[in-house]
Amino acid sequence: MILAHPFTYSVVLAIFGALLLAAAAHDIRRSIIPNRLSLAVAMIYPAHVLSSSVPVDWTGALTAAGASLAVGLVIFARGWIGGGDVKLFSATALWAGLPLFTTLLLVTTLTGSVVALAMLMHRRLAGRPILASADGMVMKGGGESTGSDPAKLRPSHSLPYGAAIAAGGLMTALMLFSKG
Fold first, then answer.
1. Global pTM value
2. In what order do the strands lie in the sheet with 138-139?
Protein backbone atom coordinates (compact mmCIF):
# COMPACT_ATOMS: atom_id res chain seq x y z
CA MET A 1 0.00 0.00 0.00
CA ILE A 2 3.04 2.28 0.20
CA LEU A 3 3.25 2.76 -3.57
CA ALA A 4 -0.48 2.26 -4.16
CA HIS A 5 -1.32 3.78 -7.49
CA PRO A 6 -3.49 2.19 -10.18
CA PHE A 7 -0.89 2.71 -12.91
CA THR A 8 1.97 1.28 -10.82
CA TYR A 9 -0.14 -1.71 -9.86
CA SER A 10 -1.12 -2.29 -13.49
CA VAL A 11 2.54 -2.26 -14.52
CA VAL A 12 3.45 -4.75 -11.78
CA LEU A 13 0.66 -7.11 -12.86
CA ALA A 14 1.69 -6.71 -16.53
CA ILE A 15 5.26 -7.69 -15.65
CA PHE A 16 3.94 -10.70 -13.74
CA GLY A 17 1.88 -11.72 -16.77
CA ALA A 18 4.76 -11.18 -19.19
CA LEU A 19 7.05 -13.37 -17.08
CA LEU A 20 4.41 -16.13 -17.04
CA LEU A 21 4.04 -15.93 -20.82
CA ALA A 22 7.81 -16.07 -21.26
CA ALA A 23 7.96 -19.17 -19.05
CA ALA A 24 5.17 -20.80 -21.06
CA ALA A 25 6.91 -20.02 -24.35
CA HIS A 26 10.20 -21.47 -23.09
CA ASP A 27 8.46 -24.61 -21.87
CA ILE A 28 6.59 -25.10 -25.14
CA ARG A 29 9.71 -24.57 -27.29
CA ARG A 30 12.42 -26.19 -25.18
CA SER A 31 10.63 -28.29 -22.52
CA ILE A 32 12.35 -26.28 -19.80
CA ILE A 33 11.43 -23.32 -17.62
CA PRO A 34 14.51 -21.24 -16.84
CA ASN A 35 15.14 -20.68 -13.14
CA ARG A 36 15.56 -16.96 -13.75
CA LEU A 37 11.91 -16.65 -14.81
CA SER A 38 10.54 -18.42 -11.74
CA LEU A 39 12.89 -16.37 -9.57
CA ALA A 40 11.77 -13.14 -11.26
CA VAL A 41 8.10 -14.01 -10.62
CA ALA A 42 8.90 -14.43 -6.93
CA MET A 43 11.18 -11.39 -6.74
CA ILE A 44 8.61 -8.92 -8.08
CA TYR A 45 6.01 -10.11 -5.57
CA PRO A 46 7.03 -7.40 -3.03
CA ALA A 47 6.16 -4.78 -5.67
CA HIS A 48 2.66 -6.29 -5.76
CA VAL A 49 2.39 -6.07 -1.96
CA LEU A 50 3.59 -2.45 -1.95
CA SER A 51 1.54 -1.21 -4.91
CA SER A 52 -1.80 -2.88 -4.20
CA SER A 53 -4.52 -0.52 -3.07
CA VAL A 54 -6.00 -3.28 -0.88
CA PRO A 55 -4.13 -5.04 1.94
CA VAL A 56 -2.27 -8.18 0.83
CA ASP A 57 -1.99 -11.16 3.17
CA TRP A 58 1.67 -11.86 2.47
CA THR A 59 1.96 -14.39 5.31
CA GLY A 60 -0.85 -16.43 3.75
CA ALA A 61 0.89 -16.07 0.40
CA LEU A 62 4.11 -17.46 1.87
CA THR A 63 2.09 -20.37 3.28
CA ALA A 64 0.54 -21.11 -0.13
CA ALA A 65 3.93 -20.92 -1.86
CA GLY A 66 5.66 -23.04 0.77
CA ALA A 67 2.97 -25.71 0.73
CA SER A 68 3.05 -25.74 -3.08
CA LEU A 69 6.80 -26.19 -3.03
CA ALA A 70 6.62 -29.03 -0.49
CA VAL A 71 3.92 -30.93 -2.39
CA GLY A 72 5.61 -30.14 -5.69
CA LEU A 73 8.91 -31.60 -4.51
CA VAL A 74 7.16 -34.86 -3.63
CA ILE A 75 5.51 -34.97 -7.05
CA PHE A 76 8.83 -34.11 -8.71
CA ALA A 77 10.60 -36.89 -6.78
CA ARG A 78 8.09 -39.36 -8.20
CA GLY A 79 8.89 -38.12 -11.72
CA TRP A 80 5.39 -36.87 -12.43
CA ILE A 81 6.34 -33.26 -13.07
CA GLY A 82 9.47 -31.28 -13.85
CA GLY A 83 11.42 -29.18 -11.39
CA GLY A 84 10.81 -26.02 -13.39
CA ASP A 85 7.07 -26.60 -13.16
CA VAL A 86 7.33 -26.93 -9.37
CA LYS A 87 9.32 -23.70 -9.04
CA LEU A 88 7.05 -21.72 -11.38
CA PHE A 89 3.87 -22.97 -9.70
CA SER A 90 5.24 -22.15 -6.24
CA ALA A 91 6.24 -18.65 -7.32
CA THR A 92 2.82 -18.15 -8.88
CA ALA A 93 1.12 -19.48 -5.73
CA LEU A 94 2.85 -16.66 -3.88
CA TRP A 95 0.84 -14.20 -5.97
CA ALA A 96 -2.40 -16.16 -5.55
CA GLY A 97 -2.03 -16.46 -1.80
CA LEU A 98 -4.61 -18.39 0.13
CA PRO A 99 -7.68 -16.51 -1.26
CA LEU A 100 -6.92 -17.28 -4.93
CA PHE A 101 -5.00 -20.54 -4.54
CA THR A 102 -8.00 -22.72 -5.40
CA THR A 103 -8.60 -20.71 -8.57
CA LEU A 104 -4.93 -20.99 -9.54
CA LEU A 105 -4.96 -24.74 -8.97
CA LEU A 106 -8.26 -25.27 -10.80
CA VAL A 107 -7.36 -23.22 -13.89
CA THR A 108 -3.89 -24.77 -14.03
CA THR A 109 -5.28 -28.30 -13.73
CA LEU A 110 -8.04 -27.79 -16.29
CA THR A 111 -5.70 -26.11 -18.78
CA GLY A 112 -3.10 -28.86 -18.27
CA SER A 113 -5.75 -31.49 -18.92
CA VAL A 114 -6.83 -29.82 -22.15
CA VAL A 115 -3.20 -29.50 -23.31
CA ALA A 116 -2.53 -33.17 -22.45
CA LEU A 117 -5.61 -34.37 -24.32
CA ALA A 118 -4.75 -32.22 -27.33
CA MET A 119 -1.21 -33.61 -27.39
CA LEU A 120 -2.45 -37.20 -27.13
CA MET A 121 -4.97 -36.66 -29.93
CA HIS A 122 -2.36 -35.02 -32.12
CA ARG A 123 0.15 -37.84 -31.54
CA ARG A 124 -2.49 -40.49 -32.18
CA LEU A 125 -3.65 -38.84 -35.42
CA ALA A 126 -0.05 -38.38 -36.54
CA GLY A 127 0.67 -42.07 -35.82
CA ARG A 128 3.49 -41.19 -33.44
CA PRO A 129 4.25 -43.08 -30.24
CA ILE A 130 2.37 -41.90 -27.18
CA LEU A 131 4.64 -43.64 -24.67
CA ALA A 132 8.30 -44.66 -24.82
CA SER A 133 10.55 -46.58 -22.46
CA ALA A 134 14.16 -46.05 -21.55
CA ASP A 135 15.13 -49.07 -23.70
CA GLY A 136 13.51 -47.52 -26.79
CA MET A 137 10.38 -49.65 -26.90
CA VAL A 138 7.21 -47.71 -27.62
CA MET A 139 3.46 -47.88 -27.10
CA LYS A 140 1.79 -46.80 -30.32
CA GLY A 141 -1.28 -44.61 -30.52
CA GLY A 142 -3.52 -47.62 -31.15
CA GLY A 143 -2.48 -49.21 -27.87
CA GLU A 144 -0.27 -51.98 -29.26
CA SER A 145 3.02 -52.43 -27.47
CA THR A 146 6.34 -53.27 -29.01
CA GLY A 147 7.24 -55.42 -26.03
CA SER A 148 8.36 -53.12 -23.25
CA ASP A 149 7.15 -53.38 -19.65
CA PRO A 150 4.24 -50.89 -19.33
CA ALA A 151 5.40 -49.95 -15.82
CA LYS A 152 8.61 -48.55 -17.31
CA LEU A 153 6.85 -46.40 -19.90
CA ARG A 154 6.99 -42.59 -19.77
CA PRO A 155 5.46 -39.94 -22.03
CA SER A 156 7.46 -39.78 -25.26
CA HIS A 157 7.22 -35.99 -25.19
CA SER A 158 6.89 -34.01 -22.00
CA LEU A 159 3.79 -31.97 -21.33
CA PRO A 160 4.51 -28.22 -21.38
CA TYR A 161 2.86 -27.71 -18.02
CA GLY A 162 4.41 -24.24 -17.82
CA ALA A 163 1.70 -23.14 -20.26
CA ALA A 164 -1.00 -24.42 -17.91
CA ILE A 165 0.65 -22.72 -14.93
CA ALA A 166 0.81 -19.51 -16.95
CA ALA A 167 -2.93 -19.76 -17.67
CA GLY A 168 -3.64 -20.18 -13.95
CA GLY A 169 -1.31 -17.29 -13.16
CA LEU A 170 -2.92 -15.03 -15.75
CA MET A 171 -6.33 -15.75 -14.23
CA THR A 172 -4.83 -14.88 -10.86
CA ALA A 173 -3.49 -11.61 -12.28
CA LEU A 174 -6.93 -10.75 -13.71
CA MET A 175 -8.58 -11.40 -10.37
CA LEU A 176 -5.95 -9.33 -8.55
CA PHE A 177 -6.45 -6.50 -11.05
CA SER A 178 -10.21 -6.54 -10.50
CA LYS A 179 -9.68 -6.20 -6.74
CA GLY A 180 -7.52 -3.15 -7.18
1. 0.81
2. 138-139, 131-133, 153-155
